[in-house]
Amino acid sequence: PLTPSMEDYLEMIYRTCKAQGYIRMTNLAEQLNVQASSATKTVQKLTEIGLLAYEKYGIIQLTDKGKQLGSFFLKRHKIIETFLKNIGVKDDILHQTEMIEHHLTLDTVESIDILNKFFKDYPEILQQFLKYKEHLSKI
Amino acid sequence: PLTPSMEDYLEMIYRTCKAQGYIRMTNLAEQLNVQASSATKTVQKLTEIGLLAYEKYGIIQLTDKGKQLGSFFLKRHKIIETFLKNIGVKDDILHQTEMIEHHLTLDTVESIDILNKFFKDYPEILQQFLKYKEHLSKI
Ligand SMILES: [Mn+2]
Ligand SMILES: [Mn+2]
User: Fold this and answer.
1) For residue B124, what is the nearest residue in chain A, using CA coordinates?
2) In CATH, what number is assigned to the domain containing residue B83?
């Protein structure tokens, strides 16, 4: 079982590796806003459990299993962000997403994803909701 | 600023006080599944910052400010639970609610509350979503 912090590492590593195939330890530490020493420790742990390949020159890559998980964590993040935007949340979306993403079951993430898709397929219903919301806030 | 644990205390104290006007320390510790000593510490802190009245015989009551907050935390809890039920989440609703309730802004809680009300006022739209969801899961 991965800790929230390990999930954040895999999500961030996946984000960058998707674009450039690898990420450097120094760059990872910067992006996660942690000390290089603590990034090194976590990367070593994730390597031990078979999710990362990390050997020489500070270059980190994902194993197939790591890719699967990283891809899921990034998707989960986007699903929550999209939901908050859909229902008209204005502030602090990134921070709230970071705080709650680790605590939702797959069932919940999938249900929210389907709600996002429902609103995308029926934009008139999302509009109806946003008008309803605007009306309620005016009372 | 209250910690998640303090928020849980106020929510639980409010739940019980709403019904019987007060709660005993032993009963509170039981309900929160914590040691009496740690319950006592937190109750003392909440008393110091003016949210609880706790003096004799182990009897705890809420101040007006404590009532306001406790009522909000209980409402917030119910809003998240209702949302998860609405979108068809089956398992682990209580635990997920406990994990995320402390990390949502007032704006987000209100937006989710309005979504719940929207589904209550337009039950045919909630039905349409649940059918859409059922259909998607069958593919
Ligand atoms: Mn994230
Ligand atoms: Mn709660």
Assistant:
1) A125
2) 1.10.60.10
Q: Is residue A25 part of a domain?
A: yes
CA A72/CA A103 separation, integer angstroms: 14
Cα distances (angstroms) measured from residue A59 to each of A85, A115, B109 = 35, 39, 42
B81: containing domain: 76-138
> Is A114 in contact with B103 (Cβ distance < 8 A)?
no
Kindly state the tokens that stand for B72. Answer: 């909000």
Which residues in chain B have their CB less than 8 angstroms from residue A90's CB? 107
Residue pLDDT, tens place only, A105-116 = 999 999 999 999
Nearest CB partner across the interface for B118, out of A84, A96, A129: A129
Q: Are B65 and B51 spatial neighbours (Cβ–Cβ below 8 Å)? A: yes
B58 and B96 co-located in one domain: no
A21 touches chain B (CB under 8 A): no
Does the pLDDT of residue B107 top 90, yes or no?
yes
ipTM of the complex in this document? 0.92
Q: Looking at the 3D structure of chain B, how many domains does it have?
A: 2
Q: Both B55 and B32 in a single domain?
A: yes
